[in-house]
Design a protein that fits this description.
343 residues; Neuraminidase; four-stranded antiparallel β-sheet; globular
Amino acid sequence: MSPISPQPGMRQKTSRTRRLRLVLAFLAGSLILAALGLQATEEPRWRLEEVLSIGGLKSDLLSMWVGLAVDADGFIYLTDNVQNSLMKFDRRGKLVKKTGRRGSGPGEFLAPRQVDVSAQSVYVVDGNIQAIQVFDKELKYQRRIPLSFAVNEIQALPDDSLAVPGVPLIKSEAGKVIILDQAGRPLRSVAFIRPDKADATSMSSFIFAPGGELYAALFWADRIVKVDAQGHAAWAKSLFDPDKVKAGKKSILGISQSMTFKDVALDPKGRLFVLGGSFSQTPNRDVYVLSPDDGRLLGTLTLPQSSHCITIDRWGYLYSRADKGSTLKKFRIVASEKNSHRP
């Protein structure tokens, strides 16, 4: 007996059912991929749009590295490790003032590092001078705050105190940020690594939020941490493949020769921006945006060129130094075309 052919209405119904199953299977697969974060073709959430460039490879205005700060009026302050100088630029990139020369005397530098500003003063630390040098906003030298050790990082806090890193080779100070008064006397310290885990590898870039919370991103470990205003650990975050970080080339002291993270900044909404190092998908260019509440990764920005530092001003503009420090770049952070959320 010949098989019975399905009626035309039955064939049409079967075809519709098959198409419906395919559509449902596709939608289910898409939802699973989105939930797992596996949509590799998704565009970055935000992008950078350059609005200002200072210096450059063909200019002798800036030479090399290191410090970068922006005050509440939009003036830009840079230190230069080759010219041994401190410079101030206006919001249009015009050089307003320059001071300093090589030496260890008042207002002189041997290895100028980070710079930060308060309402009245400019503070500069030097890798070879055990002091914080203080200038007024016109870059006129004021005084020195003596230290028992040289530091590379500094932050001026709202209460007129100053934050510097503890000495990593001193066990009692490793993994801590020390808060000093204007005379250089320690007021307190904030630990971002457990004392039994702190060692020479605990060096980090750090920043205090206006509310007193501390964020730190370790230079040689895959670890970003938040400590609340009471000094309690709030959260810790890792971003990379642990096997890849562990396999990185080590020095004779057992410290990785590849920096994991290089700098941190906070935007006006309190979000944490972390400049990645050698283990990033785009080394020394990827900037990770983390939620201050739980460390959740919100998105990634990519700098056009490698950099060692970032900062964000009160208006939300992001700054970095490019061309090994000989160029200063200022960027507007804008939403990607597929995401209208404004950062």
